[in-house]
Amino acid sequence: MPAKLLMKKDLKSWISNLIGSYAVYGPRPKGNDFAFERIHSSDQIVLDYSKTILPLKKFLLPPYEPVLRFEDGKAQRLPEARAAPKMLLFGVHPCDASSFAVLDKVFISDHRDDVYAKRRENIITVVIACREPGENCFCSSMGTGPSMERGYDVLLTDLEDRYLVESGSPEGDVLIEEVPGAAPPKPIDFERKKRSIEDALKKFKRKVVTDGLPELFRKNLDNPMWNQIRDIDLACGQCVLVCPTCYCFDISDTSEIASGNGERLREWDCCVLLEFAEVAMGGNFRKDRGARIRQFMGHNLSYCIEQFGRFKCVGCGRCIQACPVHIDITEVASKVRGG
Amino acid sequence: MKDPYLPEKAVITKIRRETVDTKTYAVRMLDERKRAEFSVEPGQFIMVSLFGIGEAPFSLSSSPNSDGAFNTTIRAVGNITSALDRFEEGAVIGVRGPYGHGWPIESARGRDVLIVAGGIGLPPLRPVIGKIAQERGDYGRLEILYGARTPDQMIFPYEYEDWRKIKDTRLELTVDSVPAGTVWEHKVGVVTTLFDEMKTYPEGSLVMTCGPEIMMRFVVRGLLAKGFAPNQIYVSLERRMKCGIAQCGHCQIGPKYVCKDGPVFRLSDIQGLPDLAL
Questions:
Q1: Residues on chain A touching B51 (C-beta within 8 angstroms)
Q2: What pTM value is reported for the model?
Q3: Same domain, B134 and B76
Q4: In chain A, N or C terminus with fewer CB closer than 10 Å?
């Protein structure tokens, strides 16, 4: 795959060029945090960010959107939902880029959701390898960072005064051609990339041992820790909302009283909320808060292997950061090992 | 490719009241091409849409005929089912599916079949009874144990005589309680009360059970105590479902999706999973 070197001083002009040809989205400051939002000028983007509040799933599965429209007794998939603009996501972290592989399994592999698939096809990712993992990050444990070998269109690696720019797809090849003033990389640059990854790996404060973890989790469904977690858990659902691979949604209908026409809406749902597993006549198979948080953790660390052939958790640490009572998925993973 | 969320239109051709809160709806696909290709295995489910009100999963109480007509028996207990309860013959609904895995009709061939049903758990098993009656020679003895809360909660009572006439078939009924003034000639007690005189034995047989999960819990215990093995017991599970296609996530039990891997499961395939009352 083609690769180039981009001097840091030329980064902004490259981004400006991209803004001319694509709808570019990137990490922008938002309060004390960052959010992936539309970039109109190269000054708005901040590449040494920790993590965005919401992950990239918001572009593929908006928090709330109509999927069907009923009119005069006819149901139609909404044409608005079908329109998927070409989007370039600039400065994506490897953990977030890895989340697409999980979502694709759910929305393309079995029953193809056309709207999702079109959006997905129209997303181009420029990934930036992480040099400074955040205090809650553990992607190195999940095999989803701090850099990545595939699953990107373009990969940037920070080499102090320059970036190594590598293409990972035909789309990436096209993007790379536009990189201004770029010299071809030498073997030493790839050496420096390797060292940069090694340096980043040393900085991780959190670790999950994944060997045998899915099976161990299944053997710990009755671990007393679930009762301890139940006692502090607020069931607020923030962990699920900020999880890059949590895709569960609810469906509900609305109707206009006068015409009888209406819409069917899809909106994010949370397995940690009480109503999530409710059935007819007030039945609920996960009435217990501990069972609900166990579902979130189990889906991420265990059940996913049978469903997707990989971990659902990408180690971004957002659920740890978001939790008001400090429930920590890496601690859970260590406790199922008797830790 | 067809959009997985888009329902096909179907018309309610006939409504028959079963109990105070349960009706059987005869439904027929509107589109002529769809009629011929609409095929549903016993125990699979469909998503029924009431446009502007919502969508919910239901099993079929009869296999579709070649004309795309089928029955579904529904108890009015929630928003959607209560709205459906107010629908009249001729009303148009939406249908998606069928989805999931149904009863082990094929592996049951040549074996005795024990059906244990409770309350609204009987309708999904009715197509199995129909299938065995139709291809009687292919199956061993058939034993149906059915329990309901009260005599007037029994579904399909008008068919029991016909079922008893199926060759080598035994039907036993029980109710939890008999209100004063009601005539009842059968057993009183939960459905496992009927296990004492059960004529099906573990050897060469297969069990299909459907009902409230707490009922199936005791059914399973009773069967295991009688020497049945977990790999010859099949249960149909109920979970919240919003999509039917393993996307919305609601029906997950550990790694299993009830909509995709079920709703009918072999007990040995789900033992030890979390959040299961079995």
A1: 70, 73, 75, 253, 255, 262
A2: 0.95
A3: no
A4: C
